[in-house]
Amino acid sequence: MSEVKIKSNNLNVFYGDKQALFDVNLDLNEKEVTALIGPSGCGKSTFIRCINRMNDVIDICKVTGNIEIDGVEINDENLDVVSLRERVGMVFQKPNPFPKSIYDNISYGPKIHGKGETKSELDEIVERSLKKAALWEEVKDRLDEPGTGLSGGQQQRLCIARAISVNPEVILMDEPCSALDPIATAKIEELIDELKKTYTIVIVTHSMAQAVRVSQKTGFFHLGKLIEVGKTEKIFKNPDNKMTQDYITGRFG
Amino acid sequence: MTKEQRLKKRHAAEKRFRLYGLTSILVALVFVLILVNNIFSKGSSAFMKTVINVEVFFDPELIEIENGAPEENIREADFYDITIETLLKAYPAKNLDEENELIDLFTTDAEIEIKKAFLENNNLIGKKINLEITASDDIDQLHKGNYPRNLPEDRRRISNFQLKIYDNLLKNNKINKNFNNYFFNNGDSRDPELAGIGGALVGSFYSIIICLLLAFPVAVLASIYLEEFAPKNKITDFIEININNLAAVPSIVYGLLALQILLATIQLPRSTPLVAGITLALMTLPRIIIPCRASLKAVPPSIREGALAVGASKFQSVFHHVVPLSLPGTLSGTIIGLAQALGETAPLILIGMVAFVVDIPSTPIDPSSSLPVQVYLWSESAERGFVEKTSATIMMLLSFLIVMNFIAVYLRQKFEKRWN
Questions:
Q1: Residue of B nearest to A98 (CA)
Q2: Containing structural domain, residue A171
Q3: Looking at the partner chain, which of B305, B313, B325 has a beta carbon nearest the beta carbon of A54?
């Protein structure tokens, strides 16, 4: 059994008057893939956006309760979100490479964190990140071309490489394959399998099959509440909760 | 209604709409054509001037200087006698009245032109040269066909005798048309043949530069702060509404403001490009802030999130990613704002730029005119020569505006390509 990396305790999130998460208690294990499933608007994305404090961007969003990473409280006003996000990377639903060259897309993170002082250090980081994201072979000859010129699947792997470039501990993925075709999806899933050796991964997905394929642990959300969480195998074969059963068999959602 | 009838009706509605659209575009085009045609037909002749070919004899008895004299001496020397001699040789005049009428065919600056020709060589004493002297405004207009010669003599500015001389000179091929360098190099003048937009050009240039230097940084920083950093609350809403209101305030109100604050209270020098630039900057500020904010808003939030997610601070995400991407919109908004400022007349009239300024301003704190005000000034002048000058100035102003708008479109297209 691997160790708990992220621990949420009575996490509540409000968007103005509307409550989006109700008392979520969820533990995420180190170097494991945790899948979050549930119908649209159930709060899965809201939950992972709490882990890197991305909800700070939304003015009306208020978060109460605790989230700890390695035992350190991160839902704390005095915490520096920049260093938090250096440790917790994120990949979004729609690929969002910067409209710059492939090289600049990857080297941006290390540059602002002072990780690549010299050109050769940066070159190395770029190569390592792209290799880890399984994109190196496809783009090594055109690093100075715009990242936005790649195909959708390549763009998403570029975004994963960008997240890896600052050497985080956790990678959050918010429906990373929802805009991709099946072949690109398969590549990303393979990649996730590889990445979990190094990183703790949380993935939000609408595809039950994907959750089964990539994750070791699955959490089912409904209307802002965490209904059930457990080993992926158990959730999909023999869930405790009737609602989970109905959802994974496609009776609602 | 049957299905066919509904289909027919739908198609007819679409056709009708296309027709309306086409008609309105055609109407707009016709108006533009009328305007452009009117300005061009009146103004294009102003770029040429009528000159009269005369023979100048630098008679040593009439000039006190010698060949190779120092330049200052020549500038101070009296060329009046030789000028009169020269002009009188153009046609035999019988008495003093006729001599005066003959001299009136030439510009009042004839002496300066002869002196200039001498300065160019400085070895012409005792020699004869052929020189083209600018004709007076009346002859200029007559030669360009703008002056009716079939009026009775007492209602004409040109006498019968002058007409006779003109016809004679024309017959001997002594009258030509040259490029009108005065129009671009001179300041304003009471004599239309000498009046130019040089002063107005320089005045407008200084005003726009000052306007740019003041308005651009303030507008860009204000819009970045309001769009990216300011909390969204009642105060920022109020500020936003007021910026929109300020952009719609009639420009003459800014003129009144400048009159009271810049001229009466701070006592900056009147009629100067400095004051004009500050006034135009106040007026242009909200007009730049609005497109700047729009172009910042147009940068997709996913770019901001992408930057934040790799650990960029708010400041870094804005200045490394959002601002560069909004640059094309910001720049084209600024240029269009400046183009509006360039054509602005009312506030400049209030701060005293309608003054008659002969000298070309050498600094922004010299009294000056500006292009649109020059149009206004000349359009009120009685002489026929100013009619074409007015239209020509409008042509210059319009071409500056067109160039600026083209630059705006070009910048937008060039930099937006980097998106994809």
A1: B303
A2: 4-248
A3: B305
Helices (H) and strands (E) in chain B, counts: 18, 3
Q: How many beta carbons lie within 10 A of that of residue B30, not counting itself?
A: 10
What ipTM does the predicted assembly reach? Answer: 0.91
Q: Say if the Cβ atoms of B309 and A146 lie within 8 Å.
A: no
Give CA angle at B95 (B92, B100), nearest 5°: 80
Residue B153, pLDDT above cutoff 90: no
Q: Read off the pLDDT of residues A28-60 as tens digits, 9 standing for 90 and up.
A: 999 999 999 999 889 999 999 999 999 888 888
- Establish if A192 belongs to a structural domain: yes
Q: Which residue out of A108, A145, A148 would a mutagenesis test of the B interface target, given it has the greatest number of B Cβ atoms within 10 Å?
A: A108
Question: Rounded to an integer, what distance in angstroms lies between the CA atom of residue B329 and that of residue B20?
Answer: 31
What whole-number distance in Å separates Cα of residue B134 and Cα of residue B107? 6
Residue A253 lies in a domain: no
Q: CATH 1.10.3720.10: which residues of chain B?
A: 198-419
Q: What is the DSSP string of A173-215?
A: EESTTTTS-HHHHHHHHHHHHHHTTTSEEEEE-S-HHHHHHH-
Which backbone phi and psi does B322 adopt, to 5 degrees? -70, -50
Distance between CA B46 and CA B277 in Å, rounded? 29
Q: Could A85 and B308 be called an inter-chain contact, meaning their C-beta atoms sit closer than 8 Å?
A: yes
pLDDT at B126 over 80: yes
Partner B contacted by A67 (CB < 8 A): no
Predicted local distance difference test score (pLDDT) of residue B119: 87
Please state the domain count of chain A: 1
Q: Where residue A184 sits, what CATH number does that domain have?
A: 3.40.50.300
Amino acid residing at A131: K
B335: tokens are 């240029």
The secondary structure of B191-213 as a DSSP string is: STTT--SHHHHHHHHHHHHHHHH
- How far is A166 from A149, CA to CA, in rounded Å? 23
User: What is the pTM assigned to this prediction?
Assistant: 0.86
User: What b/e sequence results for A237-251 when a residue is b if at least 16 CB atoms lie within 10 Å of its CB, and e otherwise?
Assistant: eebeeebbbebbeee
B198-419 has which CATH code?
Answer: 1.10.3720.10
Mean pLDDT, chain B, rounded, equals 91
Closest CA to B339 of B208, B201, B215, B217: B208
- Percent of chain B at pLDDT > 90 equals 75
pLDDT digits 0-9 by tens, A142-195: 999 999 999 989 999 999 999 999 999 999 999 999 888 898 899 899 999 999
Q: Is the dihedral of CA A81, A84, A85, A90 positive or negative?
A: negative
DSSP letter for B129, please. Answer: E
Q: How many CB atoms lie within 10 A of CB B196?
A: 23
For the stretch A123-146, pLDDT in tens is: 999 999 999 888 999 999 999 999
Chain B environment of A113 (Cβ under 8 Å) = 311
